[in-house]
Amino acid sequence: MYPKYKYGVEGDTPSFLYLMPNGLNDPLVPNQVSWGGYFEWGISPDDSTFAYNNHKGKAKQICNNYASYFYSATFNNFAARMDWASEGKGNRNPIIALNGNVGIDLVHIEKKVEETIVLDASKSLDPENDPLAFKWWVMSAAGTYSGKVAIENKNLDKILIDLPSDSAGKTIHIICEVTDKGMPSLTSYRRIIITPK
Fold it and tell me: Domain for residue 73, yes or no?
């Protein structure tokens, strides 16, 4: 039974989703986009204090765009959790192995500009042995490099990235997104932060 409220309203979902351990972000870095949205340091809605927020401007637009993008994944994750709570069993998230590293930790890579980086998630697996679909993409809102980073064959389990010649000293955030074919389908992530030098 959900208690009837008299004065309170709900609004904690973004805060909770930002803390979800799914490999998408570091909760201590608010301007990394996650299921909970995107935040920038600035004036708060009270117009007198400063904090990480997204109540207006570019931050709000970026946040809304990603909230729409991640909606299916967050909804399915909640549905799977309800299965587990109700029946003690259900679909589980894929486990991503990135270049041999299994887990959800963010991956940091430093390479010289114009070098090629190999990102290999082919050893990833699903606890229920469901087929996996792969998607690699650049999260430009989180990185500091504003140029184009090409990802060919972005739906394969292994990709190559050529670091642009003008990217030295910047950061490029690549997301490895792996979705299973279970019921409901669940998605796991690994964030790769590349710092060309």
Answer: yes
